[in-house]
Amino acid sequence: MKNRFLLFAFCVLMTPSFAQTFLTPGTWSGVLKLNDSTQLPFDFEVQNAKGKLSLMILNAQEQIKVDELSFAGDSVFIKMPVFDSEFRCQRITAGKMKGVWINHARKNKNVIAFEAFAKAPDESKGKPETFVPTETLDRGKWEATFSKGTPDEYKAIGVFKTKDLINVSGTFSTETGDYRYLSGKVKDNNTFYLACFDGAHAFMFTGKVQGDSIVNGRFYSGIHGEEPWEAVHNDNFELRNPDSLTFLKPGFTKVDFNFKNLEGKYVSLSDDKFKNKVVMIQIMGSWCPNCMDETKFLAGFYDTYKKQGLEIVGLAFERTDDFAKAVNNVQRLKTRFGANYEFLITMKTGADQASQALPMLNKVMAFPTTIYIDKKGMVRKIYTGFYGPATGEAYKKYVEETTQFVEMLLKE
Predict the structure, then answer these.
(1) Long-range contacts (CB closer than 8 Å, 24 or more residues apart) made by 70-73
(2) pLDDT confidence of 123, banded at 50, 70, 90?
(3) Residue 218 DSSP code
(4) Which of 260, 303, 310, 305 is CA-nearest to residue 281?
(5) From CA 378, how far away is CA 3, in angstroms rounded?
(6) What residue ranges in 123-181 does DSSP mark as E strands?
(7) What dihedral do alpha carbons 281, 290, 248, 398 form, nearest 10°?
(8) How far apart are the first and last CA of the chain?
């Protein structure tokens, strides 16, 4: 990548009209190059509202609006919402750009080659495929096993929907959360891919449907992670109960902490604000897509139940030791979803440090993890992970059970 991406402050700024010829409104196709043979595709819409350009990234049913764009010389800089990542690209021709995606939340293997081009109007509508698959992913639950036979082995549930036998969407649910909105295609010989890009993660799943099995599966997480996976059709398969994975160590009945809020003031559960209140503690990070989904839910949930005596506290485990940067990252998340509850900066990172910060817990194995505390300050439930809206029925079940449980605590 040329130095112009680092020295853009010295370039001549684009005029709005030239920027619009650079990013022509309409549907674009983008690809992230994960390795020499694997490219993660995703579509986005370029929109022009009264001369202001923005993007809408499309992940199955999800649409992510990106409106922090700046231009300099023949370059465009696209800052992703919520997450600390950005694209730095150069105009190649009208309707084509090339550059990199940089994930600042990672310390290494965080720069991925990227290119995109504007689709022709008829291409945006999609062209008919020339083959018909003999197998389908749309058949209920798939019991998936990742990194089978290794110390890192874990289980997941895959649920997918197909359209016209070719286009497929869905997600995987694990004991620590879900892989959000995946979409892709079934191709020749019943091979397929599922992918998503949300500004924090670039996920790509490939495999082959073979009867009631999925074989030759590979999972790519950006350019820093790759592992095998396989699956069998099994409508009876269930993961362990999220309420059973993290718990208080023997001898403990309460949780306590003392961290700074976004204004730099120390906050503790012993503060008057939380006395005689039902409290939900959200163990989270602004870098975490599942935490983003949970924050979106909790923002509205808090507004609904605050007057009835509910408080929510987000404990942010950011991937930086710079307090000001951590505050900025969390504030962007808070602002994005209108979350009116308290967020605290722990100045610790990762599941291990989360466990150190909350030593009364057996372990913190997932972001997010949510602790439910009654009006007497007693821990009543600890929920590991989060099943977001991409999981469909699992998300509806989570919302119903959470609402019922909190309402019960509020009535006590």
Answers:
(1) 71/13, 71/14, 71/18, 71/19, 71/22, 72/8, 72/9, 72/11, 72/12, 72/13, 72/14, 73/4, 73/8, 73/11, 73/12, 73/13, 73/14
(2) low
(3) E
(4) 310
(5) 56
(6) 141-146, 154-163, 167-174, 177-178
(7) 90
(8) 61
CB-count burial class (<10 Å; 0-12, 13-18, 19+) for 404: exposed
Query: Following DSSP, what letter does each residue of 335-391 receive, concatenated?
Result: HHHT--SEEEE-S--HHHHHHHHSTTBS---SSSEEEEE-TTS-EEEEEES---GGG
Q: What residue type is 45 in one-letter code?
A: E
Per-residue model confidence as pLDDT tens digits over 158-199: 999 998 889 999 999 999 999 999 999 998 889 999 999 999
Q: Which residues of the chain form CATH 2.40.128.120?
A: 141-233
8 A C-beta contact, residue 71 and residue 5:
no
The secondary structure element, H or E, covering residue 83 is none
Secondary element (H or E) of residue 4: none
CATH 3.40.50.150 fits 242-411, yes or no: no
| Cβ-contact 258, 270 below 8 angstroms | no
259, burial (CB in 10 Å: exposed 0-12, middle 13-18, buried 19+): middle
Q: Which helix (H) or strand (E) holds 329?
A: helix 323-337
Say how far apart CA 365 and CA 54 lie, in whole Å.
37
Domain 141-233 CATH class label: mainly beta
Q: Look up residue 78 and give its two tokens.
A: 């696209």
Answer for the pair 100, 86: CB distance below 8 angstroms, yes or no.
no
Residues 6+ apart with CB under 8 A from 378: 253, 254
- Going by C-alpha positions, the residue among 87, 83, 94, 76 that lies closest to residue 113 is 87
- pLDDT tier at 19, thresholds 50, 70, 90: low
Nearby residues of 284 by Cβ (< 8 Å), 6 or more positions away: 291, 294, 295, 314, 315, 316, 317, 367, 368
CB under 8 Å to 18, separation ≥6 — which residues?
A: 71
**pTM (2 decimals)?**
0.90
- Within the chain, all domains assigned CATH 3.40.30.10 are found at 242-411
pLDDT at 50: 84
- Paired with 257 in beta bridges are none
Does the domain at residues 3-121 carry the CATH identifier 2.40.128?
A: yes
Question: Is residue 126's pLDDT more than 70?
Answer: no
Distance CA 47, CA 66 (A): 10
